[in-house]
Specification:
Largest sheet: 7 strands, antiparallel
Shape: elongated
Structural class: alpha+beta
Pfam family, one: FKBP_C
Order of helices and strands: EEEEHEHEEEEEEHEEHHHHHHH
Catalytic activity: [protein]-peptidylproline (omega=180) = [protein]-peptidylproline (omega=0)
Organism: Magallana gigas
Helix content: 25-40%
Number of strands: 13
EC number: 5.2.1.8
CATH class of the largest domain: Mainly Alpha
Enzyme class: isomerase
Number of domains: 3
């Protein structure tokens, strides 16, 4: 079998011919070391006339260094970062990327072009990377491979353009360029981990993201892409460009109201699809846009309150579906702070109490719903169910305590008989 021939390639950022790479033997897998990793290589270095000036192979030991730290010549920091494990490559390095005018006497003269034959043996990820996850739980770890430019980052609602390659082990399951709105990435079939990470990137930045299942495809996986359940994924991402959205404080009051209604509509779409986690994000955005808006008057102010109440009610319903009952009560309480006659808030809070076996408080909320809306059949029915549960509970408690009393009475009787026996001796 003949070995594949690889053409020489200029790997310098400026394409100035300063470092030319030719792969002599392809490596394995798709991963390459990133800045901060401790790499282990074998190499042979020669001048352009063929004179050998150094060789780790002659010494019989690997050469190790931290990539991207400036501890080796610039050509190596550039070149090793392009290699795969086991790869053998030749690098032709102009003086600018080697030892320059000074050289490295006595073996390397001034302005020398150097040729290195390098084998990447292995590397260790000493650099732990940066945890970008919202809970600091290690579910999104970033390793920057190329720094971006400027100081701005995409904000929530920004239109971003990225190129990414998604991998599970050695399997590349996705390689695409896509535009999406930050916070709406799911609409473009982009995972949550990338949606969160892109807000910390700068234009032109390239990075590797190590993403846990909770921020990717979770326990279901993605059969269409060949991603199995509970898969940890790696994404190589480049932020090509972005255009930031208006911040909430930059919007006019009517714009905030419009954006909140749009967010609520999107949330409802995902709720109907059973995607409660994503729906929650939109409902939360809906209420946050208007939470501190105090300049609206008349009908607009009433509409603001109505939208916030609806957002909290919808969040309560999402948490109810997810069996997060404390959060259900919290959102119902917030809705009632704005509208103390909100039947749905009492009803959903009652459902949360009922799910937590707090039947007395559940009954009170359902009764309150009936008081405000006497014809509410669902609330009336829940009152009856709560009363049945309370009776059952009372009956069980009575039986339990009756049994305890009988047990204690029997023990006392035995003790009394024993004492009488002692007296008769």
């Amino acid at each position: 079998m003949t070995q594949e021939v690889h053409e020489p390639t200029d790997i310098t950022p400026d394409k100035d011919g300063g470092v030319i790479k030719q792969i002599l033997r392809a490596g394995e897998g798709n991963e390459s070391p990133v800045p901060g990793d401790n790499v282990s290589v074998h190499y042979v270095g020669t001048l352009d006339d063929g004179t050998q000036f150094d060789s780790s192979r002659d010494r019989g030991e690997h050469f190790k260094f931290d990539l991207g730290k400036g501890s080796v010549i610039k050509a190596w920091d550039l070149g090793i970062a392009t290699m795969k494990k086991g790869e053998l490559a030749k690098f032709t390095c102009k003086p600018k990327y080697a030892y320059g005018e000074v050289g490295s006497p006595p073996k390397i003269p001034s302005n020398a072009t150097l040729i290195f034959e390098v084998e990447l043996v292995s590397w260790k990820g000493i650099a732990q990377g940066e945890d970008l996850s919202l809970k600091n739980d290690g579910s999104i770890i970033r390793h920057i491979t190329t720094k971006g430019k400027g100081w701005k980052n995409p904000n929530e609602g920004a239109l971003v353009k990225v190129h990414y390659v998604g991998r599970h082990g050695e399997n590349v399951f996705e390689d695409r360029e896509v535009e999406f709105t930050v916070g709406d990435a799911v609409i473009s079939n982009v995972i949550e981990g990338l949606d969160i990470a892109v807000k910390r990137m700068k234009e032109g930045e390239k990075c590797r993201l190590d993403i846990k299942p909770s921020m990717a495809y979770g326990s279901k996986g993605n059969p269409d892409l060949g991603v199995p359940p509970d898969a940890e994924l790696v994404y190589d991402v480049e932020l090509l460009s972005f255009e930031n959205a208006k911040e909430s404080w930059e919007m006019e009051p009517h714009e905030k109201l419009e954006q909140s209604i749009i967010a609520k509509t999107k949330g409802t779409k995902f709720f109907k699809e059973g995607n409660y986690k994503v729906a929650l994000k939109y409902y939360d955005k809906c209420q946050k846009n208007l939470e501190f808006e105090t300049t609206l008057k008349g009908e607009d102010e009433e509409k603001r309150k109505e939208v916030i109440v609806q957002a909290h009610l919808n969040m309560a319903m999402c948490h109810l579906k997810m069996e997060q009952y404390v959060k259900v009560r919290d959102h119902c309480n917030k809705a009632l702070d704005l509208d103390d006659k909100c039947v749905k808030a009492y009803f959903r809070r009652g459902q949360a109490y009922y799910a937590g076996n707090d039947f007395d408080l559940a009954r009170k909320d359902f009764e309150k719903a009936c008081e405000i809306e006497p014809e509410n059949k669902a609330a009336k029915n829940q009152v009856k169910i709560c009363e049945q549960k309370i009776k059952q509970f009372d009956k069980k408690e009575k039986a339990k305590y009756q049994g305890m009393f009988e047990k204690f009475a029997a023990e006392d009787s035995k003790k009394s008989d024993g004492e009488k026996g002692d007296d008769s001796k």
